[in-house]
Amino acid sequence: MKNLIPIRLALLLGVALYGRVYCSSRATLRNNGYDEVVIAINPSMPEDPALIESLKVMISESSRSLFEATKHRAFFRSVKILVPESWTNGTYSAATQGESYSLADIIVAQENPSFGHFPYTLQYGACGQPGQYIHVTPDYVTSPVYVSDTGDRGKVMVHEWAHLRWGVFDEGPTAGYPEFYLDRDNVATATRCPATMEGQNIIVDYETFNYKNCEIDPTTLLPEAGCQFAPYGTQPDELSASIMSHQYVNDIVSFCHSNNSDPANIHNQLAPNEQNRLCNLRSTWDVILESADFRDNNNPPNESIVDTTPTISVVRTLPTRFVLVMDVSGSMAINGARLCTVFLDLTSSSANQIMTNLSIESGCSWFVASSSTQSNEILSNFLLLSQSGDGNDVDETVQVHTASISLTGPGAQATGSVQIDSTIGEHTLFLFTWTSNEPDITIASPTGCEFTNVGSSLNACPDQPIHECDAAQRSCKFTIPGTATTGQWTYSVTSTAPVTEDLTVTVTSRPKNDSVSVLTVESYLAATDITTVEPALVYAKVSNGFNPVLGANVTAVITDPSNTETYLQLLDNGAGADIRQNDGIYSRYFYQFSSPGRYSLRILVSGSLLITGHSAGSPAAFNPGTLYANGTFVANPNGLSNIPNVTVSIASNGTGDEFNRVSSGGSFSYTGPTITAGTDVFGPNQITDLSATQTNASVVQNSSFIQISFTAPGDDLDVGYASYYSIRYTNESSSLLRDNFDSGTAVNQQDVVQGNITSPQVALSGETFVIRISDLGENDTQIFVAITAFDDIGQSSRVSNIASVTVVGTNPGKIAVSLTVLGASSVCTSSISLCRHKE
Fold first, then answer.
1. d(C-alpha 154, C-alpha 831), whole Å
2. Which of 317-321, 530-534, 565-569, 772-776 has the highest mean pLDDT?
3. Hey, how many other C-beta atoms are within 10 angstroms of the C-beta on 469?
4. By CB neighbour count within 10 A (0-12 exposed, 13-18 middle, 19+ buried), where does 47 fall?
């Protein structure tokens, strides 16, 4: 068995696979200064000294703004700008400390179609979890034009750094959240933080660019369509927040908080925004202070720091060098190379932990793979490790298909199929390995012609034979000539061995040409070292360039220390582990830990190249213009030209555009207690997509009712059936349910007009409840609702996000409330209007 390992490694020569595994930032905060911050320029960017100088100015401005926004707790002390290997005209130091594009905090690359030149942060995780990277474009960095769109670059980068580093979310009306809501007094209020921010609700005629105050829709009591809140250019002296809401306003330099001694900048818990939904009404500043950077009084305010200008060095990417360690010695120098480790031993040891730490510190990753002859994990892992990681997708190879096959006796046969989509086709390789005798292999193209290693075929493809078989390496390689035909390819293998034969099949390909964006899969694990009984969060980003790919079938295959595989479907439904619906990020919890040890992950993806949705990311808010206290409104001089289009729609290139992808997703270790089979350790997952709206009053016994939507959790996180729901409401304070859920008024089954809260449907499906509320007072106009779910042994989920609804036109004392549990939360697009003052 072990003698196959060097054979399979030898097959990797000349092959590079695309499929990124996201790693954590190496930036650290010590004594109030961030070090090891990396800004990496994509290799597709032409060499430009002006870009480097503009980046230096931008990060210096950001450092000053960051120090002010964090109340003198943090600034950028040392920053490295990583230029591509192809940049040779400047004077650059060598990147010898493991700096790489794939580990950068900020990337400089071509624009994302969803966001244009607006900076944004790729953000997968829940509240408080760090993002992956900040994306800026060269035009944004070098051109003054975009300052009119988003405001001061320093504050914009603080807005994005807060997403990236501290895992907070936007407080304004971003995609999927309304521009306005009704406050406790039934007054239409703009979604913003703080609520004390001053401005006007205006609407513009796009033909004449005359603007007016918005009219109120008498049915909803909300402003008419097209209306938006325009903050005054000058705010009251006491107002300074929030950078996560309207960072472009000059007077805004800080974050909303929960300190009642500063009411002007207090967090707006009523605003229907992403921060409130995902962080359970907590202020951005509270979440930031709970991060590892500031928790337990780490990095307290330092008034003695007067110069926040960072030390900036420019380093050049080195040719990728890898060190493969087959033996562990007491000490090791890696000299700027990436130390990548593939463990064949699934158990843990102190020596293995040393290798794990060295791999991460050098800018690489560690993996675990079975050395079984029926596994091709070793091959997949080393293919992934051989990628350059420099952001140049055009030069990378993607893994399209992998399979492990066991054939018993001569004549035993297995077949398989592979989709070659329209984005790939060059250097397409079918690789077969075996343990004993060379099998008979036939590959059929979508046109029906065949390639084979057995004599000649009656329907042979041109250029036959093309295979290279090596008895010593026990492998056959079929390199398809030219560009492989788009469509379904099939293969068959027939055993010639008198004993059981273990075979593996791997198919790789490269982009069809330099102008085609290749479809890629990028995986991410929220944690790689799990020490307690907690679920692992698995993410996979499926994209075509920067465009999200929706509706894909994404499966995580997790191999435990005993080589048992668990298949887990990842979802893009905006519920449970997934924070946004239809953004191309597929997520799920994994909790089936059979024993302590190392677990490996690979991602299988199939689907169709039909792209509709919004890219994952958190962009800076758009500045429509400046509103003055005298009512004058001066529009953004750029007009509508630069507004991000958060919805992307790209149809497939025709028929036969199905695709397959495989990616090694890295590995993680579990060192918690052994979980005995059948033990119920995890309760239902937290409901994070609860929303509430008032609907037609005639639906239920001529009473008003409120529709509340969420996705059903399960018995174990998002699997199975919860046993019952506990629904509570209050008309006092939204934070009451968050801080003391049991203090809310309970909804009992006798209050339920329709449905049964003691018999939930299966996780991820929908159900409807109608409940009656009969204790509202004459002046009660707002209801706050939250839900927890319980499993069969009484374990509860965390309290859901708090939903609120303003009751309009009802008779106090008798209100019927409808709760609808949907399979996924709805996603809408908030409009951004241009208002222009015309003399």
1. 26
2. 565-569
3. 15
4. middle
Cα 473 from Cα 381, distance rounded (Å)? 19
**Residue 45 to residue 110: CA distance in whole angstroms:** 8
Structure tokens at 774: 């009969």
Percent of the chain with pLDDT over 90: 51
Nearest by Cα to 814 from 772, 769, 752:
772
d(CA 432, CA 505): 5
Whole-number Å distance between alpha carbons of 719 and 92: 53
Q: What is the band of 327 on the pLDDT scale with cuts at 50, 70, 90?
A: very low
Other Cβ atoms within 10 Å of 300 Cβ, number: 10
> Where does residue 698 rank: exposed (0-12), middle (13-18), buried (19+ CB within 10 A)?
exposed
Residue 278: what pLDDT?
A: 93
**Residue range 553-575: mean pLDDT, rounded:** 92
Q: Please report where in the chains the tokens 């007491």 appear, as a residue.
A: 330
Q: 623 near 155, Cβ under 8 Å?
A: no
Give the Å distances, CA to CA, from 8 to 315, 369, 383, 440, 717: 35, 13, 11, 20, 39
Name the DSSP class of 15.
-
pLDDT at 32 over 50: yes
The SS3 call for residue 672 is coil
Q: What's the distance, CA 59 to chain centroid?
A: 25
pTM of the model: 0.86
Contact 748, 755 (CB under 8 A): no
User: Encoding tokens for residue 576?
Assistant: 């449970």
Record the tokens describing residue 144, joined without a space: 């003054």
| Residues whose CB falls within 8 Å of the CB of residue 655, separated by 6 or more in sequence, listed in order | none
Cβ-in-10-Å burial (0-12, 13-18, 19+) of 515 comes to: exposed
Other Cβ atoms closer than 10 A to 266: 19
Predicted confidence at residue 137, as pLDDT, reads: 96
Q: Provide the pLDDT for residue 323.
A: 53
Sequence-distant (6+) residues with CB within 8 A of 265 are: 194, 196, 238, 239, 240, 241, 242, 254, 256, 257
Residue 11 has pLDDT above 70, yes or no: no
Left, alpha or beta for 50 (phi > 0: left; psi -120 to 50: alpha)? alpha
The C-alpha atoms of residue 629 and residue 697 are separated, in whole angstroms, by 40
Rounded average pLDDT over 112-127: 90
How far apart CA 666 and CA 359 sit, in angstroms, is: 12
For residues 385 and 380, give the distance between their C-alpha atoms in angstroms, rounded to a whole number: 9
Tokens of 229: 């809140």
- Are 33 and 75 contacting, i.e. CB atoms less than 8 angstroms apart? yes
Q: What is the 3-state secondary structure (H, E, C) of 468-505?
A: EEECCCCEEEEECCCECCCEEEEEEEECCCCCEEEEEE
Rg (CA), the chain: 29
Angle at 120 between CA 360 and CA 314, to 5 degrees: 55
Which of 265, 257, 259, 262 shows the shortest CA–CA distance to 241? Answer: 265
Question: Phi and psi dihedrals of 222, rounded to 5?
Answer: -105, 160
